[in-house]
Amino acid sequence: MKKPLPKLGLIFFLFFYSFTTFAAEKGVISGKVVEEVGGLPVPSAVISVYLDNSEQPVITSATDEDGRFSIKNLKPGNYSIRVSFVGYAPLKVNGITLTEKDYDKNLGALKLSSEQNSLQEVTITVQKPPIEFGADGVTYNVGSTLLAEGSTATDVLKNVPMIQVDIDGNATIAGKRNTRIFIDGKPSDYMTSNIADLLNVLPSDAIDKIEVLTNPPSKYSGDGEGIINIVMKKGFKVGFNGNVGIAGGLQGNGNTNANASYRGKSYALNGSAAYRYNVSKGDSHNFRENFFPDTTFYYDQYGGYKNHNNGGNFRLGLDWTISPKQSLRLSTNYNLNHTNSNSSTDLHYLNENYIESRLRNQLNTGNGNSNNFVFNTDYDLQTDTSGGKISLGLNFNTNKNIDFRSYSTTYAQPSTLNPSLQQNNNHTGNRGLNVTLDYEKSIFKKRDRIEAGLAFSYRKNDNNLLIENFNFASQQFLRNNKLSNQFLYNENIGAAYASYNYRNVGWGVKTGVRAELTDVAFDLSTGENYNVKPYLSVFPNLSLNRFYRKRYNIGATYSIRINRPRENTLNPQVNNVDTLNISYGNPNLSPAYTHQFDINFGAFGQKWSFNPRLSYSTSQGVIERYRTVTLIPGSNTARSENTYDNVGTNRALSLILIGNYRPTNKISANGNFSVIQSNYKSQLNSSLNRDGISFRAAVGLSMQLPFKTAFESNLNYANNANAQGRNKGSMTSNFSARKVFFANRLNLRVTINDILGNRTNTFFNEGQNFRVENYSTNNTQNFTFSLNYRFTKIKVNKIPPPPPAKPQ
């Protein structure tokens, strides 16, 4: 027979259980219900609280004589409430999120309409803050910023904290050398030959939020030092709703997009379509010093370009609740792009006395077409009532890219040099398949969570390059067998992971491990074969969080990540568009591993928040573009060769400061600042042994003004160091104003980009026998006007008539 628990122990146990239970269920939702006309309180209105995706309320209450209500003892989660009273249109409030650090939500005054023609449910959504912080990264809520309206994913990414977008539209996380782009948790950067093409046409109105994951969980692939995850809107409002928009700019750019969704009782359909047209142009000046033991000379090059780009994006999704325990989601995405480009360069050859000895003129034209198709399916099965769930996911993607370019070269001085004409015809195709199987379950009274899963990915790349040179004697193009080639790349990665999430009063711990087995093979049509021996990589992951008094939190993370060389860096095909500046890949690259340590602190007040982060990383075998310059025998010309190499080690220390201040509920200011100290060490070349400091800063302001108008602005600056030099960027700016009409259905937005002048970029690069300075400017200064119309058709919920009075 067991001995009874000592009284002291029993008292302690009951106290501890009561304390933890109270701490886990201390959420409060409060507010006041008033009449829309006159503002008088509505007593005895029924308040029903729902958990997201639940049809039954978790609790029902009523307002007091002053119209006030306060629903207490709610667990952390996502809620909505429904307010109803006889004679008034029901009101539903969505988007109420309770967390351990933000568990008290005051919804303010909720206005009920008594107009008879409005006896249908009115839905509003609690506005999320533009930026949310976590130990593993930052979340940017796209719908909470008007700069995102009527634009594209590329435009939105430029204003997300910790993200930098270069002039070509490539997005990276500040301080991270290798960033991957995901869409809805699925990798998308390898689904297309150029991820920037997809982001440039993906409509911002279809995006819900952007997650910047500096320490991705074990569920994600170990590739990349950070992940940018773009989460698309699912459109789960009851009934039929959506929006259409059109925008145009003075630079000749324009886009149009439409989104629509319909939700029935057990299913939801959503889709979007977008078209974008853009004109980009710019000028450049490149000056290169070539110094050798017996000679010194210079290349002074001037150039200009003009590109016309247009493309479309089409998305379609179905969410089906098969049963209370089963759900299925299907989605497709089709993207297409077309580009016409024209450019010219004038290259001046200068001797050591800066006297011109030769002048080369080159005209380049290009025509490119690309398209990609993605199909996703996810099946979820609830295995028990304690939160157990099995998820099966499948992703298939394919894309094609055809790029035709022509290069005509003549010499103005001396005129005796022969001209040349070359055509490059490049066909690229990609196919990929990703399969995932995940299991998750809540344990210990749903306080903690375990996850485990398996994954397999297959990728195939086919790059066929045909180069032809014009024979002026026979007046025909002849195949260049030396440079023409076909590159075939195959990759298989199998993975398994397990993770555990622990939560207690004020504490949060995430730990996990992921193992990946990589098998890669590639070859050339010229006969070279490369078979990389399969290798196993293990990626541990740890995240700690501690919350204090709802106002402070401190966290620390550690992870190991990998940067695998892929086809764009491995392909040894030579690009000789400019015979004095050739480039090619390196098939002998090895994967690079990075150890990442982050410490973050958060302080939150009623009107402000401050989130500093300190990050340290050390990388072995860093893969980076590397330039050498060699003297061509028998001539006073030097050729630059660009390739990739495991240049050495890099240690980086980053300080990132993110803050927000809200003096009123209609004014919000935010800012972020990053400083990154990099230290390169290389056995490859002593010129790569260098230290460098990179800077990035951004400030933003948004205001809600009278007469349903709003204003928002952002200023950004970046200055980055790399292994062989520095990329000095100029300041970029965005100013936007909006006016809404017709009960918030129609809005007009005006945006001014780079009001201070077109975007410029200065790049410095140096080696043992050369120095390069490149200056370029692009037509980013623009005025854009956009119109957007939102429509909603919600099923009318008629108030049932009162029961007939009983006969006396």
UniProtKB/TrEMBL annotation:
It comes from the Bacteria. Residues 383-789 form the Outer membrane protein beta-barrel domain. One of its GO terms (cellular component) is cell outer membrane. Keywords: Cell outer membrane, Membrane, Receptor, Signal. InterPro entries: Beta-barrel_TonB_sf, CarboxyPept-like_regulatory, OMP_b-brl_3, Plug_dom_sf. Pfam families: CarboxypepD_reg (PF13620), OMP_b-brl_3 (PF14905). It is found in: Cell outer membrane. Residues 1-23 form the signal peptide. Gene3D superfamilies: Carboxypeptidase-like, regulatory domain, TonB-dependent receptor, beta-barrel domain, TonB-dependent receptor, plug domain. This is Outer membrane receptor proteins, mostly Fe transport. It comes from Pedobacter soli.
